[in-house]
Design a protein that fits this description.
Elements lengths: L11 H4 L1 H4 L10 E6 L14 H7 L7 E3 L5 E3 L19 E5 L14 H12 L14 E8 L2 E6 L20 H4 L11 H5 L7 E6 L4 E6 L13 E6 L3 H9 L6 E3 L5 H8 L4 E16 L26 H9 L3 H8 L4 E3 L16 H4 L4 H10 L3 E2 L5 E3 L2 E2 L1 E7 L2 H15 L4 E7 L1 H4 L17 E6 L7 H4 L25 H12 L3 H17 L3 E14 L2 E2 L17 E2 L2
Parallel strand pairs: 1-9, 1-10, 16-17, 16-18
Antiparallel strand pairs: 2-3, 4-6, 5-6, 7-8, 8-9, 10-19, 11-18, 11-19, 12-19, 13-14, 14-15, 20-21
């Protein structure tokens, strides 16, 4: 049997070697100005599935291991990566042992210990907790301390790929002392902790204004006395992607603008000012349209988009889901909104290359209006007097929502026009990205609530192994009032065969077999219409010309090595 072959690196020091000597005095470079046009709603990634929260929180709280810019898994708060060779992973694959760095302190000066790791697991798996990152802890039976700096994880079944819990920006360690009274249903109410978590990272939160501004200052207890180079960070939220890009590239007011999702020709004109640069890399981001498998009729009130609402009156018809996908011309969408930073895709798992399927490309990549119309005709969805198809009194007219962004609104308009060619109507709506991705269980406009028929956004997964990401489509991961709307299965897709196949993946060690199973799971989601993948998006962000030490990372957090960022000398 071929052993699982993953990308591993020996020490964190080698990752940042190029910039580790670039500065020798903590705080010497003053204030770092960051702009997120999707404002941050919380500093606790366990209460939000939004990328903006995972990125912002990674400035403060850290995992045991993470992925570097090459997709290599590297130790972070651990001294080494557990492997079969060093005895860190049991031969029966039922457990793994992490050795923690002994000199790490929390920003309040207290010691970082195994108890914090154990507590983090208990926090995310607590009943009624609504943990947005529950898939990271799938299959974990127990977490225990061997000693203050050694943690043993026991799995329910043999786990050939065990690097999930406490790995990556979506699964950081939180301090037990700070969050001890925040378990389960109490979690969302712990505002002070959620807005300003005590961390082990290079910075600490000084002030947090939800959906507005977060200010940070250098962590006085950070484990490297020479870092960070910046004394403080000002993270401004809100606005839109073009204004964020302009503030770095054209006016020079900010040092870093994340996610410059702007039309290519506009970015090109901004770059002419010479104030900044664009950096990009391709990871696993996919812009997709989710199709709601539950009834989202507003007349259902609080029951809409829940199991109680029942199946969607038209989107549960496979012919409708397939026709919607067939009508879309991805090449036009990429050309109009993404340029070199986008590639048409039919996969929800587009990378790395070894798990990127081509099975659905033959019917999915090219638009087929004639084929879509025939599908709907054959299924009995016939055009009415207004040209909109209907069947048994149900019209193919959908509420189509997304976050506010010029590229996304333009994409909505294109898709609406494409669907009109097959007799499908779409009402277009958008919500502020801060709200849409904010995860507030009281808001009706979050992507988790999905109070619409179809919705569009981008998501991705940490690292290079898709197992934990694919676990988001398990039947028990559907968002609901019971889990605080924090489940990751946004389209409400449920197929016991998918669950069974994922269980097989979780038990498989042979790398070629794992890759094949991942492709099958990916193909199942596209073929069955859990969603419509549109664009494999590159990460594209703007940086000031004076900023150095950046290692663009599409496998973890773009801010993963912010301790090494500095001004050019």
């Amino acid at each position: 049997m071929k052993k699982l072959n993953i990308l591993l690196a020996g020490t964190v020091a080698c990752v940042a070697l190029s910039s580790s000597l670039a500065h020798a005095e903590r705080g010497a470079d003053g204030d770092l100005k960051i702009l997120f046009w999707q404002a941050v709603s919380t500093m606790n990634p366990y209460l939000s599935g939004g990328t903006k929260e995972a990125l912002a929180s990674s400035i403060v709280i850290e995992p045991l291991a993470r992925y570097n810019e090459k997709g290599e898994l590297v130790p972070w708060l651990a001294t080494e990566l557990p492997t079969h060779e060093n005895g860190g992973i049991a031969q029966d694959m039922l457990s793994m042992t992490w050795k923690l760095k002994p000199d790490v302190k929390w920003s309040d000066g207290s010691a970082f210990t195994a108890e914090d790791v154990i507590f983090t697991w208990k926090y995310c798996t607590a009943p009624d907790g609504g943990c947005a990152q529950a898939a990271q802890y799938e299959g974990v039976k127990n977490v225990e301390a061997i000693d203050p700096h050694t943690v043993k994880i026991t799995f329910e079944e043999p786990k050939p790929y065990p690097y999930s819990a406490f790995v990556g920006a979506q699964s950081p360690i939180i301090q037990a002392a700070q969050f001890k009274d925040c378990l389960g249903a109490k979690a969302p109410g712990c505002t002070a902790a959620n807005f300003a978590p005590v961390g082990t990272g290079a910075f600490v939160v000084k002030d947090f204004k939800a959906n507005d501004v977060v200010t940070f200052e250098a962590n006085p207890n950070y484990r490297d006395a020479a870092k960070p180079a910046f004394a403080s960070i000002s993270l401004k939220g809100g606005g839109d992607a073009p204004s964020a890009a302009r503030a770095v590239l054209e006016t020079g007011e900010y040092d870093y603008a994340w996610n410059t999702m702007v039309e290519p020709e506009i970015l090109e004109s901004m770059l002419a000012a010479g104030k900044g640069r664009l950096e990009s890399s391709f990871g696993t981001q996919v812009e997709r349209i989710n199709l709601n498998h539950y009834n989202a009729d507003p007349a259902l009130g609080d029951k809409r988009s829940t199991k109680e609402a029942g199946p969607h009156p038209s989107l549960t018809d496979p012919a409708v889901r397939r026709a919607l996908a067939l009508a879309i011309d991805r090449d036009i969408i990429v050309e109009a909104g993404f340029g070199e930073a986008g590639r048409p895709t039919c996969n929800i798992v587009p990378a790395p290359e070894v798990v990127a399927s081509t099975k659905n490309d033959s019917w999915c990549l090219a638009s087929d209006i004639e084929g879509a119309n025939k599908l709907l005709d054959d299924a009995g969805w016939l055009p009415g007097p207004d040209g909109i198809r209907a069947k048994d009194g149900v019209r193919l007219s959908f509420l189509y929502t997304t976050s506010t962004n010029s590229v996304r609104q333009a994409t909505q308009e294109l898709v609406k026009a494409m669907w009109a060619e097959i007799g499908v109507d779409a009402e277009l709506r958008n919500a502020s990205a801060s709200v849409f991705f904010g995860g507030d269980p009281a808001s009706p406009d979050t992507f988790q609530k999905f109070y619409a028929d179809v919705e569009m956004y981008t998501n991705n997964f940490d690292g290079t192994d898709p197992e934990k990401y694919l676990a988001e489509w398990l039947c028990d991961k559907v968002p609901s009032p019971e889990n605080g709307w924090q489940g990751q299965n946004i389209p409400r897709y449920c197929n016991p065969e998918f669950d069974k196949l994922l269980g097989e993946l979780s038990k498989t060690a042979d790398i070629e077999k794992r890759n094949e199973l991942a492709k099958q799971l990916n193909d199942m989601l596209t073929e069955e219409g859990a969603h419509i993948p549109l664009v494999h998006r590159g990460d594209l962000s703007a940086f000031a010309a004076s900023l150095d030490g950046i290692l663009m990372n599409s496998w973890d957090s773009q801010i993963w090595n912010i301790a090494d960022w500095h001004r050019k000398k």
